[in-house]
Amino acid sequence: MGEFDLIERFFTRPARRAAVGVGDDCAVFEVGAGMQLATSTDMLVEGRHFLSTVLPERLGHKALAVNLSDLAACGAAPLAFTLALALPRADAAFLEGFSRGLLALADAHGCELIGGDTTQGPLNICITVFGEVPRGQALLRRGARAGDDIYVSGTVGDARLALEVFRATHALDGAGFEQVRRAMELPQPRVALGQALRGIATSAIDVSDGLLGDLSHILRRSDVGAVIEADLLPRSDVMKAQPLPLQRLCTLAGGDDYELVFTAPADRAAAVLDAAKTAKVAVTRIGRARSKTGLELIDLQGRTLENSFGSFDHFRS
């Protein structure tokens, strides 16, 4: 199977929104009047971002999900994406599953594949995604204010718990492991929530490298600090059954959750809950922003906890 046969068989689709899609030197598509373009790029490298044991269909899903999560954090609606794919060989069985998972998620979010590149090499997936947001309404990292409540969507920590099982530092029964493995391999980008929070949230970011590490980007860009109630972080039943130190490690610093962390004024709490209801995803208040810089962790009794939790860094981890 040659390069262009591969593209034609697995990744060529009729253009819908795009004026020009797959098959030319450039994709061409329109952005509506009064709208701004949002774009993001993420790369997934085998052995670094995913294990060789992941099913191809799940890998295709996750490759796009992590990019859609960036659009969600910006409050943008997905439009289109490009795919750059390095493959050790043109393996039809792998490509059948990979493209099925990729394109199923793309169709679920109305996100059109409009071009890309393929080459031979170590397995490496790079997606650039494009979205639109009404002018001036993008959610950014720099808008948090002292007194704002801090929220997180869904539950956090399961992906890190799965990684600990893969690393053989922890053990789970079959059903528990499959649940956390799904969280690791099939994250659900909170696109609808991001759009519902436009005009309500003052800042937002997605959790890719660990909740505290990603929240710190908001705090730094907004020049505020925060108090986080560590044991209020939403967690699955599987997570709740684990020792408290492991729960805190996974939920505070685990990463790979692709949930949204965001801030909103305290008097907009009802609007936040309405947005969550519209998006059909739970949100949990986990702390507040304050004028004093730095990030303080407290337990359920209000006692300060040692903050020794780091976040993922590609060149330090």
Beta content comes to 25-35%
CATH homologous superfamily grouping of the largest domain: PurM-like C-terminal domain
What radius of gyration results from the CA coordinates? Answer: 20 Å
Largest sheet: 7 strands, mixed
Number of helices: 10
Q: Number of folding domains?
A: 2
Report strand order across the widest sheet.
8-10-7-11-9-12-13
Task: Give the averaged pLDDT, no decimals.
Answer: 91
Order of helices and strands: HEEEHEHEEEHHHEHEHHEHEEE
Specify the CATH class of the largest domain: Alpha Beta
Kindly report how far apart the N and C termini lie: 38 Å
Gross morphology: globular
Report the count of strand segments: 13
Helicity level, as a percent range?
Answer: 25-40%
Classify the fold: give the CATH topology of the largest domain. Answer: Phosphoribosyl-aminoimidazole Synthetase, Chain A, domain 2
Structural class: alpha+beta
Return the CATH architecture of the largest domain: Alpha-Beta Complex
Low-confidence stretches: none
Summarize the structure in words.
GO terms for molecular function: ATP binding; magnesium ion binding; thiamine-phosphate kinase activity. It comes from Piscinibacter terrae. Belongs to the thiamine-monophosphate kinase family. This protein is of the alpha+beta class and 317 residues long. The chain folds into two domains: 132 residues, PurM-like, N-terminal domain (60s Ribosomal Protein L30, Chain: A); 157 residues, Phosphoribosyl-aminoimidazole Synthetase, Chain A, domain 2 (Alpha-Beta Complex). The chain is built from ten helices and 13 strands. The strands form three sheets. The protein has a seven-stranded mixed β-sheet with strand order 8-10-7-11-9-12-13, with helices on both faces. A hairpin with a 5-residue loop joins strand 12 and strand 13. Helix 2 packs parallel to helix 3 and helix 4 packs across helix 9. The mean pLDDT is 91.
